[in-house]
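Reviewers of the previous submission asked for a worked example of the structure-prediction workflow described in the proposal, so we include one complete record here. The input consisted solely of the amino acid sequence. No template or homolog information was supplied to the procedure at any stage.
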Amino acid sequence: MSSNKKNNSGNTRFISCDHLDKIGEISVYYGFDPKKSPTITKEDLDAVKDILESDYIDDDIEKHARLPLHAEEKIAIIRTYHEENMYALAQPVMFYFKDPCRMNSSTSKIAKHAYHRYADLEILGASGPIAEATLIQSARAMLYEEGFLNTAVEINSIGDRDSIARFTRELTSYYRKNLNDMTAEARQLLKKDPFELLSCRDESVKTLNAGAPKALDFLTEVSRRHLEEVLEYLETLGIPYKINNGLIGNRKYCAETVFVIVNSDKEEKKNQIQRILAVGVRYNGLAKRLGMKRDIQGIGISLLIKESKNGMRKPVAKIKRPIASFVQLGLESKLLSLDVIERLRKVKIPLYASLAKDRLGAQVSTTERFNAPYVIVMGKKEAMDRTTIVRKNDTHSQDIVPIEDLPKYMKKVEEQLQKK
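From that input alone, the workflow returned the following structure tokens.
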């Protein structure tokens, strides 16, 4: 996104955009930058050869379709982050890719994806649960605009490296104790990787899996707390969710949370129309596995809907410059922040937020580049009172505005600015 300024109908200012469509405007609202999708190189594919085979999440409703997580795309994203020295930027960096990662000439013969990739959201450099919440909130808003009015989240966690190691040991031990009940093919899968048995279609293995150890039972305290905080965000936002123990990412590059957004519309269930609408995963530790000196905390979500129903893929050349930036301070305000932003987005108030940035300095420095005339602040006290502080930057005058009244208040602010 460039920062060229143009006037249109008075003093309204716009920002020129590249690689953006109408649905992507929602992601920009939540702090994502539209960016050209990275190119997948032969080196990326070579780096991932040993983990591609079992890189799947199963979806029983869609006739046992398998939804690949595509580790090669994550590798291409991490490589781009490294090559462009994004370490030097205020962390985290957040990207909206309107197209799937592209193959270059040397990889063009790779088979096409088995499903339609609608768009991708990626956050790199964020370890906190606000990253999961931001991805889920943004994706659900995008899906809503495309006509998927009732969605829910299914989520699981395989934890950090220690959690995964403990789970792997217990899972392997469990299967070995039941070798006599397994077919020859299932035994071969066990030798290769016990995780592959979790999605095995063999009837004997399905029976065993009903009593298999669950990843949640082996989480370290840090991983357990991370998942609990993610769920707290979902509860605060009123997002329906359930734990799905069957969501197990590839242990060689996935970490912590694995989640899907599903269609919970009753009519959709009746007709068995597309159930899984988006799939997300953390891939902390992948950079180290690729031989990089610095690890990169990464998390992304891919929207998988098959077509755009409402013309949301139309290119967007420019968007309104934000009239306000949003700054949050403390855990309590962070929990409410996504709700505040969604309220303002629904009434189309041009806003800039950077929720995944924990430090105040990082938030302020990022929002300052837009030179917004107002700033909306929510600290611990405001969160407890369900209020916000709306401050005018040039005069430093401010009002305390209840969250419920904020959309109407900011609409009046926007009208006043347009009259100048």
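The first strand starts at residue 5 and ends at 8. We consider this example representative of the routine output the project will generate in years two and three.
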